[in-house]
Amino acid sequence: MEIRLSDSFTYKKLIRYVLPCIAMMIMTSIYSIVDGYFVSNIIGKNPFAAVNLVMPVLMAISAIGFMIGTGGSALTSYYMGLGEKKKANEVFSMLVWLIIISSCIVAVIGFVFMPQIVELLGASDTIRSDAILYGRILILSEPFFMLQNSFQSFLTTAEKQNLGLLVSVLAGITNMVLDFLLMFVFRLGIAGAAAATVCGQIIGSVVPLIYFATNTTGSLKLTKAKFDWKCIWKACGNGSSEMLTNLSTSLVSVVYNLQLMKLANENGIAAYGVIMYVSFIFMAIFFGYAIGVTPIIGYNYGAGNKKQLHSLLKKSLVITAVTAITMTVLSEVLALPIARIFVGYDDTLCRMTQTGMMLFSISFLFCGFNVFGSGFFTGLGNGLVSATISFLRTLVIQLAAVLMLPMVFGINGIWCAVAVAEAVTLVITITLLIKNKKKYGY
Hints:
single chain, 0% strand
């Protein structure tokens, strides 16, 4: 039995609805991790450092897709809640074209200036050429990557989460198989790693595009649409928190890499890379839940169902709390085994990675509430509050922490920076939820 946005959600039904979104995000994270595993263990730690050096820039650029996808899904679900299906399809179609056009422009500019970008990132002579090659190949696939990111949200709004999960699995399997073939069998090095990722992104974007173009019965489909700048502004403003999250995370990652290069050279960047890969999976659970629940919130807000909004908020906080505690315990216990999987060939690097992961993992106790809080306000159409939460947790507080804590605690201060930022932001998130309760009636 299919679950509709208009349904009354119990714990079981809510988890069933968002589970494909969570699985979809986890799958995306897993094949990124497999990339890192093959690069580190087959090509070496210096190419692994090169990948992790340039990756924040690529993720920052892809933030456009997250912004339009998340903000656009909240807007289209809002119109669906009002009963304006034609308007929802027009907005959706317009935003897909906006992603295609903007991503192509960004890809060309990024390809041309990649050497300068890598130089600004502080690349050493050892990793510079690999970083440029990897960056240039991946930047050309940004149109596919942005569409893939946005379709994760739109498929949920279209009540086709299972299709989204299937596409993610196909994309992930393609990436992982090609990683093995191109790096291990054909020995294509860093270019093989990039090519495998690109092929996965093509599948993750083209299959949903074909579905929406040929769909005749679903709740969302591609139609003729004119550019409506008011809707574009609202969608982008609504999804600005997701864009800020990616931009800020990328910017802070650059600062992390610069700090780590000073304190531990390429080893520091490699250790940080492993920690980021692992955190992708844990954070994917929180982000997947937020992506899944945002259209439900948008629909009920559009329909004026305040009782359901209150229920969704209460249930989401309970689910987040249980997940946060479980994830923190798991990450502490698995820190050493994971470090050995990625960098067990280097004892010094392995110990550094284990320590870093154990300190970093404390952040999982707090970050889920902040991610949900930001997504909750996105669903309510309040992009300003949503962006404020994201801006504080991923940039302002974290940037201050990563710059100041190492002065006192050395490299351990870098590993603790995220936990400090998330804990401080949680206080602000709770305050904003209380402050806006009367306004939205949840």
